[in-house]
Each structure stands twice: as structure tokens, then as C-alpha cells.
Amino acid sequence: MNLILILQGMDMIFTRLIFLPALIILYFKFRPRRPWTIRTRRLYYLCLILVGLYLLRLFCAGFIFTPVNYPRFTDSGLFPLIKALFYPEY
After folding, report:
1. CB–CB of 82/65 below 8 Å?
2. DSSP letters of 10-58?
3. pTM to 2 decimals?
4. Rg (CA), the chain
5. What is the DSSP letter of 9?
6. Is 86 exposed, middle or buried, given 0-12, 13-18 or 19+ CB atoms closer than 10 A?
7. Please, which domain of life does this record's source organism belong to (predicted)?
8. CB of 20 within 8 A of CB of 43?
9. For the residues 22-38, what does the mean pLDDT come to?
10. How far is CA 43 from CA 5, 11, 38, 55, in A?
11. How many angstroms separate the Cα of 2 from the Cα of each of 5, 8, 41, 79, 87?
12. Confidence class for position 89, pLDDT limits 50, 70, 90
């Protein structure tokens, strides 16, 4: 049960602070032209991955893990995790 609360907390923090990687991406794209260092390029790619994961999470929450599909996932082995992230009201 404690693991579920930790995952819910991480998900909440992730969804509330996702604007930071998005701002970093915009900054790197529209900043004055300077050569990108390895560190800058890695940070940019990390931010792209984080924003991509957020978009995947939004897609799953909006189209796959909907209340209509709730009965389909109750028999799954990953149901506690799915319930914690996508069905907190049940």
C-alpha cells in the first residue's frame, strides 16, 4: 500500500511540474545561436523524453483508462498500479 502512495505522489509531482521541461525545450529552441555542448544536448533530450512520457500518460488517461474500460482492467495483474494512477476515485 505504501508503494501505491509513493507512485501517486510521484505522478502528482510529475503532472504539476511538467511545465519546467517544456519551458527548457522552448528556451533551447529559441535562444540565441550558440553551439550546443554535450551537457546542453543531454538536458534537451531528457526534457523531450519527459514531455513525451507526459503526453503518453495523458493519452492513456484520456482514451485507454477511462471509466468505461474500468471492468476490463480489474482482472489484470497490474490493476493496483493502474487503479492508483488512473482511477483514484474508485
Report:
1. yes
2. HHHHHHHSTHHHHHHHHHHHHS---PPPHHHHHHHHHHHHHHHHHHHHH
3. 0.75
4. 17
5. H
6. buried
7. Bacteria
8. no
9. 87
10. 29, 21, 9, 18
11. 5, 10, 36, 16, 17
12. low
DSSP string, 66-87: -GGGHHHHTTSTTHHHHHHHH-
CB atoms within 10 A of CB 65: 19
Q: Is residue 83 part of a domain?
A: no
The answer to whether residue 77 is domain-embedded is: no
Give just the sign of the alpha carbon dihedral 15, 4, 49, 55.
Answer: negative
Find the domain containing 44 and state its range. Answer: 2-63
Cell 510529475 maps to which residue? 14
Domain count, the chain: 1
12 domain residue, yes or no: yes
Mean pLDDT, range 30-57, rounded to an integer: 90
